[in-house]
Amino acid sequence: MSMSKVAQALSRVYESLLPQREDLVFLLSCQGEAELQGIFSFADKVRAEFAGEGILLRAIIEFSNACKNSCLYCGLNAHNQTLPRYRLSRQEILEAASYAASQRIKTVVLQSGEDQGPSVAWLADIIREIKRSFDMAVTLSVGERPRRDYKAWKDAGADRYLLKIETGNRLLYRALHPGGESFENRLRCLRDLFELGYQVGSGNIIGLKGQTIAMIAEDILFFKQHDFDMIGIGPFIPHPQTGLSECVPADVRLVLKTLALARIVTKRAHLPATSALGSLEKDFRPEGLQSGANVVMPNFTPQPYRRMYEIYPHKRCVDEPVGSCAGCLETMAVSIGRSIDYSRGDAILSLDKR
After folding, report:
1. End-to-end Cα separation, the chain, in angstroms
2. 225 partner at 20 to 30 Å CA-CA among 20, 57, 97, 103?
3. Which CATH code fits 54-344?
4. What CA–CA distance (Å, rounded) separates 239 from 311?
5. Which residues contact 11 (CB under 8 A, 6 or more apart)?
6. pTM of the predicted protein model
7. Crossing angle for the helix pair 21-28 and 213-226, to the nearest 10 degrees
8. How many other β-carbons are positioned within 10 Å of the β-carbon of residue 182?
9. How far apart are CA 66 and CA 309, in angstroms?
10. Burial classification of residue 319, based on how many CB atoms lie within 10 Å of its CB (0-12 exposed, 13-18 middle, 19 or more buried)
11. Where exactly are the structural domains of the chain?
12. Among candidates 209, 338, 204, 179, which has minimal Cα distance to 271?
């Protein structure tokens, strides 16, 4: 394939307010090493232009692995009877947040399955205490909830919310959610979060059974049209206790191409080199950071719970002491000529247009 065609398509995607799907499909389909490096290098330059050289840190605390849903791609699904379930106490969460703050990290991500056990007031109290004691940005990732819940947590001081679409194709979404979860309700949740003033993150999974290149291109356009503040793009990794246990893992090159094109199209969104990207046959997070990503998420979930938050198997850094990966990330940053940015890393996108 001619490199000039790749360069022309990259320029069109970069310069367009909303790129043509055909250009995205063309670039996602590229396979040659020179073509791939051209895409990744272009995305890295766009990242430097719009998001800077610093790598932002988000301290993730996975406070519950209970989940009412039966999503076919996730090891936390309600039908997984082999997984020990847990919920962290208020004190355990605050101790983890305190340790993250002591490591100069300014953002904590409170993540769980779709757990209906903890009350809205319980989580609101924890948010208030984190804000009061540690002055950290608080990101929530606890799934689909009524608008009143989102409002209560925003009123308590929550700054951001992560809610992936997983796939923007409605038919595929329905097939992956046999419990009846609807794409329309997920869109409703995202609208509520925007309207309530959250910095909103979404994202997708690459390599799902039934997913096509055209669907991934549509996802990238969806991210652009909604101006998400953060976009998490990770590989599908089959879990033995799911309906997709026999499927093959994602092609990491396709994941990196999607990440790169999301950077070129959205320009200013924060894009993490996800933990899943680091849990394949090797740690591909450095490659992600050289293909448009500007965020990493060190795990501050306390032991012995970390191994039990098993969305996918072979998760990296499940046995290390709490916070140990934060130091490793300094080494990773230096290895690719970058540095850690210890700021809060709020949304680069202008909030006044909402």
Report:
1. 41
2. 57
3. 3.20.20.70
4. 8
5. none
6. 0.96
7. 130
8. 13
9. 9
10. exposed
11. 54-344
12. 204
Instruction: Residue 17: count other Cβ atoms within 10 Å of its Cβ.
Output: 6
Is the Cα torsion angle 112, 76, 105, 205 positive or negative in sign? negative
Give me the phi and psi of 159, to 5 degrees please.
-100, -35
Kindly report, residue by residue over 282-335, the tens digit of the pLDDT: 999 999 999 999 999 999 999 999 999 999 998 877 777 776 776 789 999 999
Which H or E element spans position 40? Answer: helix 33-51
Query: Cis bond leading into 313, ω under 30°?
Result: no
**Distance (Å, rounded) from C-alpha 316 to C-alpha 308?**
13
Q: Would you state the structure tokens that stand for residue 157, as one six-digit string?
A: 């001081």
Q: How buried is 84 (Cβ within 10 angstroms: 0-12 exposed, 13-18 middle, 19+ buried)?
A: exposed
**Residue 287 to residue 345: CA distance in whole angstroms:** 21
The per-residue pLDDT for 99 is: 95
pLDDT tens profile 14-66: 999 999 999 999 999 999 999 999 999 999 999 999 999 999 999 999 999 99
Cα–Cα dist 186/304, whole Å: 32
Q: Minimal CA–CA distance to 154: which of 228, 226, 145?
A: 145
* Angle between helix 252-266 and helix 213-226 axes, rounded to 10 deg: 30
- Amino acid 351: pLDDT: 44
How many Cβ atoms sit within 10 Å of the Cβ of residue 29? 14
Q: Which residues contact 344 (CB under 8 A, 6 or more apart)?
A: 106, 107, 136, 137
Q: Say if strands 107-112 and 59-64 run parallel, antiparallel, or are unpaired.
A: parallel
Q: Which of 233, 232, 269 is nearest to 346 (CA)?
A: 269
**Of residues 229, 298, 311, the one with CA closest to residue 262:** 229
Check if the beta carbon of residue 257 is closer than 8 Å to that of residue 36.
Answer: yes
Q: Give residue-wise pLDDT tens across range 180-222.
A: 899 999 999 999 999 999 999 999 999 999 999 999 999 999 9
